[in-house]
Structure formats: structure tokens, C-alpha cells
Amino acid sequence: MPFGTDPESMEELVTRVREATDKTLIVKLNPIVTDIRVFAEICQKCRADGISLINGLPGMAIDIRIRRSKLGKNVTGGLTGPAIRPFALYMVWQVCKTVDIPVIGIGGISSTEDAIEFLIAGASAVQIGTMNFVNPRIMVEIIDGIRVYLVQNKMGTVSELIGSFS
After folding, report:
1. Which helix (H) or strand (E) holds 96?
2. 37-57: pLDDT as tens digits
3. Any idea which fold 2-160 has?
């Protein structure tokens, strides 16, 4: 989408949405840009309440027997799950160092350790997507795992964990 990759379009869109509502505005950033920080700064300047990132990355798969897309008529699709986690974590870390509004980390989180990494990198919250299809209890397991981590590391709240990367 043009507004996700063009700074001027994003600024206009976020400004218009902010003017139209006083409800919470969380902008999901497109990871396929030269510098994600530029878009995060625009969101903050335009008074977004938070940012979420990242979305799936473009991908495709070819059936070598018939030399056609494994994804049917669409040809391409989105790459999600654990394969994108290091890239997502990097982008979340970059954005968290750049803006002061909350960031929701998304991308390949499939364990307590993964979620904690995003929190340490600066995310105020995390979102679990693909792993819900693999393990419908993943959210409960991660929440319980974070509680255990906090106790083991003598932390009282998740806030002490957020942005603690050194």
C-alpha cells in the first residue's frame, strides 16, 4: 500500500485519522521500507498512540514438479512465523530507540523467550499470530513464562523488563 511506504502519504493518513477520532490509534508499520524509523517518527509526530510492527514479509514458493506457484493463483503470499523473528526483533529495537510512544512487537514469537526478547528490546507489548494455530494455549504459556522469569530475576513488574537491553 502506498501510504505504508511513502512518508508523505503516511503523514497525511495518520493526521487525518487522528483528526477524525479521539479513540486509540495504533499504526501498523510496513517493514519493507528503507528506514522504518522515519515512519515511526511520523506516527509519533502525528499523535498516534502507539505503533505495531511488523507484518508478514512477501514470499513465494514454487512447485518444481509443475513449475507453478504452490500458493495457487495468488502466486505470492506472506512469510510469517519463526523465520521472521530476528528481522522483526531488529525493527522493533530500532523503532523503540527512536520514539517515545508504545510499540507492540510482532513477528515470529513462538515462546516465552521470544516474547521476553521483544520486551527487553523495548516493546511495551507483544502479539502472537501464527503460533496460535500451532498451539492454541501459547498465550497462556507465554504469560506464565514471563511471570516465572520476573520472579527468577527479582523483578516486580514487566515494566522493569521493557527496554532493559544494554
Report:
1. helix 85-98
2. 999 999 999 999 999 999 889
3. TIM Barrel (3.20.20)
